[in-house]
Structures are given as C-alpha cells and as structure tokens.
Model the fold of this input.
Amino acid sequence: MNIYDWICLLCNKLTKVKKVIHDLVVIENKPAGGNNFVLVLKPNEKLPLMSPGQFCEVKVSKVPEVYLRRPFSIHNVDYEANTLSLLIKAVGKGTTVLSGLSEGEIVNLVYPLGNGFSLKKEANILLVGGGCGVAPLLFLAHTFKKMGINPVVLVGGKTAEDVPQLEAYEAVAETFVATEDGSLGEKGLVTQHTIFKTRLSEFKRIYTCGPEGMMKAVSKAAEALEIPCEVSLENTMACGIGACLCCVTETTEGHKCVCTDGPVFDSRDLNDWNIEKPSECSIPYLKSE
Amino acid sequence: MTASGTFGYGLEFDDFLDISLLGGIVVKATTSKHREGNRYPRMAETNMGMLNAVGLQNKGVDYFVRETYPKLLKYDTNVIVNVSDSTIDGYVEVAEKINSLEKIPGIELNISCPNVKEGGMAFGTSCTMAASVVEAVRKVYKKTLIVKLSPNVTNISEIAKAVEGAGADSVSLINTLLGMAIDAEKRRPVLSTVTGGLSGPAIKPIALRMVYQVSKAVKIPVIGLGGISTAADAIEFILAGATAIQVGTANFIDPAVTIKIKDGIADYMQRHQIQNINDLIGALEV
Done:
C-alpha cells in the first residue's frame, strides 16, 4: 500500500470532508449485463476524499419528468486517475437517461454524501450484495485490501445478469455467487449459500447492500450469531443533505435521515424495516376516508 | 430568503454557500413538543415538483432554544423561526419562547397546520381560525410576525386580510398545495399519509396569481414563494407584488441556487437600469 493511499484512508477518518457540487465528464459508459451499466466520471477539480458506503446525488437533465436528483453509491474511486465510477441499473426514467450518456457529456454531482461503512481493522469480513445493490461493496473491498484485510464477497441475484461487475470483485477478493435460477454459482438466495449454511460464524463483521428483503434476511442470520451487520439503505431522497427529512427510516432513536445519519446503519438500530406498510396517518385532515 | 423545511437550520448548507450573503433563512417548523413526524415514505416526485408529507418532525421548541439556537448565532443574516402547532396554546408557547431569543428578529407562523380542536381543519382555511391564532400570538410576540398562508382555500385574499387585521406584520405565500401520488403497479398511494403538499416549479403559476391578488388586498408586505428556481422567477414574484421572496424546493436540486438567484436579480437590475429593487415591487403593467 503506497503512502498516498494511507493518507487518503487516514484523512477519510480524521477530517470532515466538505461536500461539493461538481460537473464531471463521462469518461466511459460501459454495459455491465442486463440493464446495468458503469459510468466512469472525472471532474476538472480534484476529487474529494470519499469513504466506501457514501453516495452522490446526480442531476438528470433533458427529461422534465425527472425533477429531483438521483442518489447512487460510489462504486469505486481512482484517486490517481481522478475518476469515480457508479454502477447503475436502468429501471426508471432517471436511470434510463443516464444509461444513454456518451463519453464527453457532463453530469453534475453533489457529493460525497452520507456516513459510509465503518472501517474497523478486523480479520474475517463478509460483504454480501444483491443485484445492483452490490455497487458500494467494490469500493469497500478495495479499501479493506489497502488496509491489509482480505474480505470475502458473496453476491446474488435472480439470474446471471443480475450479478454485475463480477470480474471486478473477483479481481480484488475471494468471491462467491448465488443466483435464484442457478444460472451462475449456487442455486438459491444468498442466505441459502454454503457461506451462510456452514461458514457464517467465522466472520467478525458483515456488510450488506441490496434489496431490503435480502438485507433483512442477512442481518437476521448475523444477529442470531451476534455478528455485527451493517446495512446500506436506499430510501427515496429529495435533498440528500439532511435538510428536508423526506428519506427517514425508523431507528431505536427515532427517525433518522438515510442521507446523513446513513445510508449505513447497524442492523440492530433499525426499528421497522417494512417500508411498504402505509402508516397510521398522524395528520387527521389528510387521512383518506 | 430560504423557505421553511427546505434549508434545515442552515447548518446543512454550510459547505455550499456563505449563508451570510442571504437576506434571511427561515428555519424549519418548531412545535411546542417534540414530533417524530410521519412514517416513510414521505416524498413523491411529480412532474416539475414533489409531494411531501414530513409531518413537522422536529425536536420541539425547548431543544431548539437550548441546542440549535446557539449554533445559529454565527450566521450574519436574519434567522426567522417557523412556528407550527396543533392548538392555539401550542403556538403561543412557542412564540413566547422564541420572543426571548435576542438574535431572532421574527417568526413565521405556519397556519397550514390542522387544528385538532376543530377536527383537524387547518387554521389557515378559515378567517376566524386564522385571525384567532394570530391574535393570540401577537399578544406574546413583540417582534416581526410573518404569517404563512395556505393556498388550499377558496379566497386567499380574505384570509390575508383577516390576519392583517389580527396584527400580522407580513404575510408569506404560498405554502404547499394538497396533492396525491399513486403507484399504479402496487395500486397504493406513494405517500404513507396518502396525500401531501405539492411544491416546486409546477405550483409557480398558482403562487404567482395568489401573490398578485393578496398584494392588492393587504397593505402589509407580501413575501412570495412557490416554485422559484431562477432569478427570472424571483423577479416575476416581485413584479406581482412581493416585497421579498423565498426559495424552497429548488435548494434540493442545487444547494447553491439561492446565491445564483441573488446574483441573477442584481444582473436583471443592471440590464434594466434599475437602481432600487423597491421600484419593481408590484410594477406589473396590466
């Protein structure tokens, strides 16, 4: 690990990195299987120091139906080349526009946002990702490698094309795969993989990012063995900087903003994972009859 | 100025702009008691706007006075506190406590809150209720009292006149418009509260119309807001009769937009050779 990397790591933990608004140039837009794609972006300015688990808010232009910025985890950073990459799945209006960006086009980002994963120097770390939720785990895996830790990575999806960037993970860590249809790796959910069935107790900490159902199952299995588990939530956001209070999640200490107090949370601090359940309306005149 | 609920306490925007350059910030709603607010989802994107149903989440006035207020002293701008509650007593309690804070020059009374004693009808939907809350607050609050009007009424000018009569120093309008979003695939409302408040560029034509009408109905200064995201938008509100403007939802798209708008207004004045911004207030040629 070179001195530059050490400085970056230390700075991440010691200083409060200022959030910035930058125009970044698209250096590359490469398909990553299915509707997934990787955008490699480069600002004119120097990239701010970022921590794995943090995210950026991307402005989507050209489409009036897309008003708010779209949040994406930082997939990876190359400080020497001054580039960052985002792994995105084209599922809606905003992401579809971004999937069509060409080299040389400009995107505007507000970043780095959020709290990032904890970077405790522990042996035996497991990273569990699902679908394009796997995005922040590449940056995390690289960061652990630089700290001298070799994480184990387990990624899952419905089918082979739902496991994007597999080669990138394999290049940095021991990587395992689970697909529901068995088209790649073991057949089944990640929590049905051999790692969960036979090796879970060897890990000191688990980090997970992906569909909520997957993260809940992973954290439940971790909690049963008293292994701390950090999850990365994806609540819909407006401001991304902790001002509007739209992206809150319920925790043991009340509502917290996913954009600022998160997106990473200790699974034991989360109160009610079920974001699908409509609430008992607390504003009487707004309640539907 | 920045609109309540869109700029936090200003602290969240420190990295993006020098807040002392703004005319003022209206910090988010402060209620008498701590409120957790509504369940997630609290937000739905719409065409050129968004719906929100945050539910006045805040730690209550005592926490504000003790913990937040000291942090705001560093800003060399007008820090206005938005006051919300569900009973007149609640409003009065908050106003009284804010009155004693030396560096807070004014409060903005949010009367779009439901009045629990009147079955949840918003205070701002009737002249009587609006006037009664303003009257009660006026007795205990000695500094600048701005009343933020709800647009979800048949005749906003009447409400404006009622609060002017009850002692308001100024009115700000508009607050959010009641709206709804549905997820057709899930066959469910997007918001946990079913309905919410619409803001953003989509509401500008309605806000502009209401500012125009209210500024003709009252003598007190009108603060205009509702979808302002450019300097041109701001000028339009001033021409319609606004003495000042607030920028809200636009801050989510560009955290530094307020400075761009401020600079853009200066630019407009230079292009049109206007020495004093006051010359533009209500200067619409109809």
User: Anything to note?
Assistant: Residues 3-113 of chain A form a domain with the Elongation Factor Tu (Ef-tu); domain 3 fold (CATH 2.40.30.10). Chain A has two domains: 3-113, 125-232. The longest strand of chain A covers residues 20-31. The interface with chain B takes residues 18-21, 59, 64-69, 110, 235-250, 254-255, 260, 275, 277-288 of chain A (CB under 8 Å).
